[in-house]
Amino acid sequence: MNDHDHELIDDLVTANHILYHEGVVDGFGHISVRHPARPDRFLLSRSIAPATVAADDIMEFDLDGNPVDARGRKPYLERFIHSEVYRARADVQAVVHNHSPAVIPFGVTGARLRPISHMSGFLAGGVPNFEIRDAGGPATDMLIRTPQLGVAFARTLGGAAFALMRGHGAVAVGDSIRQVVYRAVYAEQNARLQMEALRLGDINFLNDAEAAGADAANYVNMDRPWELWKRRVARER
Fold this sequence. Notes:
Elements (H helix, E strand, L loop, with lengths): L2 H19 L8 E5 L6 E5 L12 E5 L16 H10 L5 E5 L5 H5 L20 E2 L1 H5 L10 H11 L4 E4 L3 E6 L2 H24 L7 H12 L3 H14 L1
Parallel strand pairs: 5-6
Antiparallel strand pairs: 1-2, 1-4, 2-3, 4-7, 6-7
């Protein structure tokens, strides 16, 4: 592996720790990144709690969800979320799946998750909600544990940056580890703010033009929150 590959793995490990520190994941959840030299492969930790991920835990997978060199390491059951999103979306370079508490209510009610602040402009245009019963019937365990369910989820995601999963959680996608971590963190924050604002009255959400402008402005400053979050987790190691 070259220095760039090692840097990418370091960022993937750090991203796991950031997502835990920011309350997006706990003992469950995962983040992956597309392989830098092989777009038909991706990197994802073995099946452990995100806060405990180290470089040696990172595994390589093909787009069928098969480990390239497992060496006895157990993969996540829901790796097919990642494999099928990468297969369907050439623009996606990183994927987060999480069960962050504030997003769950928006997947099980009629309330729509919409951008309430400029930090969450990426939520504009409608957040799709994956209904696993449509693809897997009425008696699944809610997990995307097969390629077929992964295909169905990727179809629901479509071209969106973020999707809910009814009774399960959410998935964020992005063009880098830093962007996808940003989106996962600020989607959770937006969900909390939206619920708080609903207690006060009607919400004046961002319109599509405002959301697009805010998202573009935030995109060029993606390193700012990343370096802050990275410093926080470094202090706790």
